[in-house]
Amino acid sequence: MKVLFIGDIFGKPGRNLVSSHLPAIRSRFDFVIANAENAAGGFGLNKDSFSSIVKAGVDCVTLGNHAWDNREVLSLIDDPKIVRPKNYPSGAPGRGAASFDVNGERITVTNFLGRIFMNPLDDPFAALEEILEQDNLGAVFVDFHAEATSEKACFAWHFDGRIAALIGTHTHVPTADTRFLTRGTAFQTDSGMTGPQDSSIGMGLDAAIYKFRTGLPQKNEVAQGPSIFNAVELDLTGNLVTRMARYSFLEGQESGKLEGEIFQGVNDAK
Ligand SMILES: [Fe+2]
Ligand SMILES: [Fe+2]
Fold it and tell me: What is the pTM of this model?
């Protein structure tokens, strides 16, 4: 199963790039996952942004700390395509994991929030353990939405060999550590975002710089200009990723580029 994971789709520029670029490469993949916590103007997910992302070819949407920012998400959250962070307190609407059957193979998509420099939440380690106790998960994909690289690394290493892949989100900056861990889990600390490149992680630079320089509040607006499409490709054989690569495409260029491409033929986990 060939899977594409698209990092945090940011605002209208990010959505537009997904709509224009994903259909051009969609046939290379069997299943497409995208983090859409910033899809609606940078804050959360609304009906129009969700439908445009699905229409472009995304099969499953994950969220993050901005999950509840747009109230319209409450009318969408029970859609079987949406997975929100599992470790919200019990009683939160929606689901933290969803399984999909794709051409006779199975993938379970999960989403967790970190707790370092983030709002306090339930223990993500215990939340993933709870999911892994279930049967018939197939390949487990984890979107770990967290700020601290150390927390992301420790989460990935703790579950190495028990999950197919862990790709981090939230920082909006792709990391160059694409690799297989020793027991076979595919890992990258952060996928980067899909949104305006000349920006403060998606927001306009003038207001962001003013805030840093003065400490005064300033309204954030989604930045303009060409967007970057940041994603990770994962080729699965059964529950093991046998190839992974970072994929990026800058709006206006003729084609995307692959970096950090890694192949592995053996699963050392079993
Ligand atoms: Fe984000
Ligand atoms: Fe986030």
Answer: 0.97
